[in-house]
Structures are given as structure tokens and as C-alpha cells.
Design brief:
By secondary structure, this protein is α/β, with parallel strands linked by helices. The chain has one domain (about 20-140): 2-Layer Sandwich (Nucleotidyltransferase, domain 5), CATH 3.30.420. The chain contains five helices and six strands. Strands 5-4-1-2-3-6 form a six-stranded mixed sheet, with helices on both faces. A hairpin with a 4-residue loop joins strand 2 (about 30-35) and strand 3 (about 40-45). Helix 4 packs across helix 5. The protein starts with a helix and ends with a strand.
């Protein structure tokens, strides 16, 4: 097996996902981008959900996480449309607030004070994915 890896067979096995993008979609949308190879977390927020697909296409993350909307959600049509577009075209990992919030309230990852609640929520989705789903520790720095 080691010889196959040295001779060019199996290099795809060595390529681990490095970019994870989490989206907390709403009237104001929080985005968190985690670069696993550099342990770097970048967060921002958007006021216009109609640009989210373009941003996802530009970043082209290895893992896309989207907070699942409740069935009885009554959000703006543009937010609903963006959610539907992401679900239909990008095959995101959907995580409900009832799934990630209880664990992340206990773990309480530290964030800079300038992060908005939407940015913290998006970053906590990433934290939940790595800590809660994969059992991996997170050691990130902030950009």
C-alpha cells in the first residue's frame, strides 16, 4: 500500500476536506468559513440573501453546512428562495437549531466580541460539525 502511494496510486485518499462553509440564513445571514489546513476562521454577515449562491460558488467549499429551517418558518420570500436554491443545487449538510444549540451552549466556544450573533451562530454550526459529529477538537484563529 505504501508503495502504491509513493508511485502515484491513491493520492486522492490523502486529500482531506479543508474548507468548510456554514450559513446561518435569515433576514441577516451569518457566514463562517473555516480553513482546516490553516486553522483559520473568517466570519461575515450579509444583508441580501440573493447573493449567497454566488458566494458559495466562489468559495466552492468542501463541506457546506446550512442551518435547517423549521417547518413553520415565516421568513421573507428572498430568504426562502435562497434556502431552496441552496438545498436544491448544493446538497448542504442540514443541521437544525435544536440539534446544535444545546451542545454548543455547553461547550461555549470563545469568539471575538465584534462577531455578530449571526456570525457566532454560523461558526457554532462548524463547531458542532467538528466537535459533535466528528469528535474532533477545534483550534482556530480568527481572521
Amino acid at each position: 500500500m505504501a508503495e502504491e502511494l509513493n508511485n502515484g496510486g491513491g493520492e486522492n485518499l490523502l486529500q482531506l476536506p479543508s474548507l468548510t462553509l456554514a450559513v446561518d440564513l435569515g433576514e441577516t445571514t451569518g457566514l463562517a468559513l473555516y480553513d482546516l489546513t490553516r486553522n483559520l476562521l473568517r466570519c461575515t454577515m450579509l444583508k441580501h440573501p440573493d447573493v449567497i449562491i454566488s458566494i458559495i460558488n466562489l468559495i466552492n467549499p468542501d463541506i457546506l453546512i446550512l442551518e435547517r429551517f423549521p417547518e413553520t418558518s415565516s421568513l421573507d420570500t428572498s430568504v426562502q428562495n435562497a434556502y431552496t436554491d441552496i438545498c436544491l443545487t448544493k446538497n448542504p449538510l442540514l443541521i437544525s437549531p435544536g440539534e446544535w444549540k444545546p451542545l454548543m451552549r455547553v461547550i461555549h466556544l470563545p469568539f471575538p466580541k465584534y462577531f455578530t450573533q449571526h456570525e457566532r451562530d454560523a461558526a457554532n454550526l462548524i463547531g458542532f460539525y467538528f466537535l459533535g459529529r466528528r469528535g474532533e477538537d477545534i483550534k482556530w484563529t480568527f481572521a
